[in-house]
Design goal:
The complex is a heterodimer. Chain A has 18 helices and eleven strands. By secondary structure, chain A is of the alpha/beta class. In chain A, the strands form three sheets. Chain A has a five-stranded mixed beta sheet with strand order 6-5-11-8-9, with no helix packed on it. In chain A, strands 3-2-1-4 form a four-stranded parallel beta sheet, with helices on both faces. In chain A, strands 7-10 form a two-stranded antiparallel ribbon. In chain A, helix 2 packs parallel to helix 6 and helix 14 runs parallel beside helix 16. By secondary structure, chain B is α+β, with helices and mostly antiparallel strands. Classes of the chains: A alpha/beta, B alpha+beta.
Chain lengths: 433, 243
């Protein structure tokens, strides 16, 4: 099959040019309408741009879903020193692979959105914080930045308007926690990626002690479209509270994995069984993690929902980054939860005791259950630990590690008990039979 | 064969070469990888060449390319790299902000971060050596010991794990005859487990040096390792313009 997959039902706004190498050059992007929105935004003025983005209903695509225009409006109107915009391109949530595609195929779309955002919040410098492993996407972005400078789009005199905005690509060095916005600011400043206590919020004291806004790649990539076609057009997609289109990044046991763009509120059943071609090898659906590994697991019978922020919360999980991880009936939940916990153990920054110690203990207990050495009391211990790890730390990494443990014990307790009582995985036994 | 090291070799301070289209690291539904050479896993062919002095300031921190030869004793801030340091410093309001890109540059030249390099970076940026060492130990991508010429990192996190990531890791270990993190006696391979690479739709994702291979299955591994070995020995393996 060709790459990238496309599906006829998709509403391609951000992903329209995925797979088109010409569109990632400046000339190619301009021929497709690129950088008209930036010129228009500067004509409109800062307040009008923020109002337009507010009216569009655009919400942050990095996971939290905070309204973007509102976030921008938190920045001081009276500028007393440098303001910064940081683009969070540190995509590293297990299950998430949408920003990588945006970076490698549509770097100018992101840069244009970032320049519009920077203009709106009076930021004189945009830092694109890209995870270090994304060498290829980073090289694509580096070239786009180079082109933007050479063409007078970035720099001292943006499009000849006298507005000055610098753009700098900054590579991380392999730390999941740097996707958390205050850890990212610390990392950008040349510190360990340890989250900061809020307040002060970044809009008051962010990068280098100055007012800063952090936006996800996908969020700013939507901005040029909103400026070009208007907030009413954008708000026409999706639901009342979850407006616009979203990249659904689907992984795991489906026939067609990949990024698929739809209006928010797209039905999960249709996504899995139609767009992605159903479950591989004719197997049955067992569970779905709808928003990246940090959100609670849904059982197959809980999956008949729409994928917008509100509907997924109502179902007991979160949309997060719309990174849909699909698991079939051969999946050992204990093993997968243990693997996710191992990840959080590795990525804990070590700052808060409940997280530093808790993640390691969760992993040890899960491993002994997985290996048939656990007891029923271990389940209580896991839940007790998880309760002590939730809401007790500076950032939510600790909560994220506990979430799959709690939700899997609630929903797949028999599988844990099978490991405990029989000393072996009950799913593996069924799969072999 | 893609690995023709001659493409656009312009020397250490040379200009850029075009990007390749498509996604050459992608093996499709079944593992059919384009024949590889070393240049393919060091970025120069795959993403095009960038100048050692960093080019335009905004793109200076992007690791211009992966050098074919690492020299742990190479001087850190000389020639085009001195120029690159100045460009990096100009992008941040204080010297500490430059720490990541400068450490990246040191690792790029040396292959890993030696205690001497950490001290030198500390000196240049006006920071305490212990502080810089603390940074280097916090971040996974800073290697403080040498790794093989081909640094193979296999994702075994949940999305890849569901689709056989563990078996792909085992296949690489078996094919190279190593334990995780160990380097082969010929210095060619170090194989490690890695946390999510952000390519969950293309399991199993494997990073070899700077390049991703996607949709890797255990059966593909012997051929990938064989090609990398052959690429190392072939005459067009290096990306020539690096030194």
């Amino acid at each position: 099959m060709a790459y990238p997959y496309r599906h006829e039902k998709e509403t391609r706004v951000l992903s329209e040019h995925f797979g088109d190498p010409v569109a990632r050059t400046l000339d190619g992007y301009r021929k497709r309408g690129g950088y008209q929105a930036l010129a228009r935004a500067i004509e409109m003025g800062r307040d009008a741009v923020i109002d337009e983005v507010k009216a569009s209903g655009l919400r942050g695509r990095g996971g939290a879903g905070f309204p973007t225009g509102v976030k921008w409006s938190f920045m001081p109107r009276e500028k007393k020193g440098p303001h910064y915009l940081v683009i969070n391109a540190d995509e590293s949530e297990p299950g998430a692979f949408k920003d990588r595609e945006l970076l490698r195929w549509t770097p100018h779309q992101m840069i244009e959105g970032a320049l519009i955002g920077a203009y709106a919040i009076q930021a004189e410098h945009v830092y694109i914080y890209c995870r270090g492993e994304f060498f290829e996407p980073a090289q694509v972005v580096a070239r786009a930045i180079e082109e933007a400078y050479n063409a007078g789009i970035a720099g001292r005199n943006v499009l000849g308007t006298g507005v000055a905005i610098d753009v700098t690509l900054h590579l991380g060095a392999g730390a999941y926690i740097c996707g958390e916005e205050t850890a990212q600011l610390n990392s950008l400043e040349g510190r360990r990626g340890q989250p900061r206590i809020k307040p002060p919020f970044p809009a008051v004291m962010g990068a280098f002690g100055r007012p800063t806004t952090i936006n996800n790649v996908e969020t700013v990539s939507a901005v040029p479209h909103i400026i070009n076609r208007g907030s009413a057009w954008y708000k026409g997609f999706g639901t009342e509270k979850s407006a616009g289109t979203k990249l659904y990044n689907v992984s795991g046991h489906v026939v067609r994995r990949g990024n698929f763009e739809f209006p928010l509120g797209f039905p999960m059943h249709e996504l899995i069984y139609d767009v992605c071609g159903g479950i591989r090898d004719g197997r049955q659906l067992k569970a779905v993690i709808p928003g990246g590994s940090s959100v609670p697991i849904l059982r197959a019978d809980e999956c008949d929902i729409d994928l917008d922020y509100e509907s997924v919360i109502a179902a007991g999980s979160m949309l997060g980054t719309a990174s849909v991880i699909v698991m079939d009936d051969r999946t050992c939940m204990v093993k997968q939860v243990r693997r996710m916990v191992d990840f959080y153990t590795h990525e804990s920054c070590g700052q808060c005791t409940p997280c530093r110690e808790g993640t390691a203990w969760l992993g040890k207990i899960l491993r002994r259950i997985e290996e048939g050495q656990g007891t029923e009391a271990d389940l209580d211990l896991l839940l007790d630990l998880s309760a002590n790890m939730t809401g007790t730390t500076i950032c939510v990494l600790s909560d994220s590690a506990a979430a799959p443990v709690v939700s899997s014990i609630a929903k797949f307790k028999d599988e844990y008990l099978g490991h405990i009582h029989d000393g072996a995985c009950p799913v593996a036994a069924v799969a072999v039979a | 064969m893609m690995g023709n090291g001659a493409t656009g070799a312009t020397g250490a301070t040379g200009g850029t070469t075009p990007l390749q289209g498509g996604n050459p690291g992608w093996a499709g539904e079944r593992g059919e990888f384009t024949q590889l050479s070393e240049a393919d896993v060091r970025g120069s062919e795959y993403v095009g060449r960038r100048p050692a002095n960093g080019g335009v300031g905004g793109a200076v921190s992007s690791m211009p390319y992966m050098l074919p030869e690492k020299d742990p004793n190479a001087p850190l801030f000389e020639g085009p790299y001195a120029e690159r340091l100045q460009k990096i410093l100009a992008r941040y309001p204080d010297r500490q902000g430059a720490l990541h890109p400068v450490l990246n540059m040191a690792e790029e030249l040396h292959g890993h971060l030696t205690p001497q390099a950490l001290s030198r970076v500390a000196e240049v940026l006006g920071l305490a050596p212990a502080y810089v060492r603390g940074m280097a130990t916090f971040y996974t991508m800073y290697n403080r010991a040498p790794v093989g010429r081909y640094f193979v990192q296999v994702c075994t996190n949940v999305a890849c794990n569901l689709c056989g990531g563990d078996a792909v890791l085992q296949a690489f270990l078996a094919e190279t005859g190593t334990e995780p993190g160990e380097t082969t006696p010929d210095g060619l391979f170090t194989v490690m487990e890695v946390e999510c690479l952000g390519a969950c739709g293309f399991p199993t994702a494997v990073q070899v040096n700077s390049r991703y291979f996607e949709n890797v299955e255990p059966g593909d591994v012997p051929e990938i390792v064989r090609q990398l070995r052959a690429g190392e020995k072939s005459t067009d393996a290096g990306d020539g313009g690096a030194n």
